[in-house]
């Protein structure tokens, strides 16, 4: 018996907005469109699913979807130019990361981050 991958599902009020945000802006590949759910592949394994029949039970700022990249500043510029509100990228010395936060169209907290060299 072996786990071969994972999907974390979130509620969405608009599948079209989720598709535009995660496919077109973030650049994730759409793995499967199930009609009520969109499942996106993340490089390196794992998937994010967004379903219009699930209710958002998250608290403000919780959970956080973190996407790892070497191009934090490029993602920041792309999202800002698309009118997405983002925090400024900063170095977080406690966790030795460079990152910024934003939200997807449903208000899920999204972090774009890279680990800094030790």
TrEMBL record:
It comes from the Bacteria. GO terms for molecular function: dioxygenase activity. InterPro entries: Glyas_Bleomycin-R_OHBP_Dase, Glyas_Fos-R_dOase_dom, VOC_core. It holds the Pfam family Glyoxalase. Keywords: Dioxygenase, Oxidoreductase. Residues 3-115 form the VOC domain. This is Glyoxalase/Bleomycin resistance protein/Dioxygenase superfamily. It comes from Mesotoga prima.
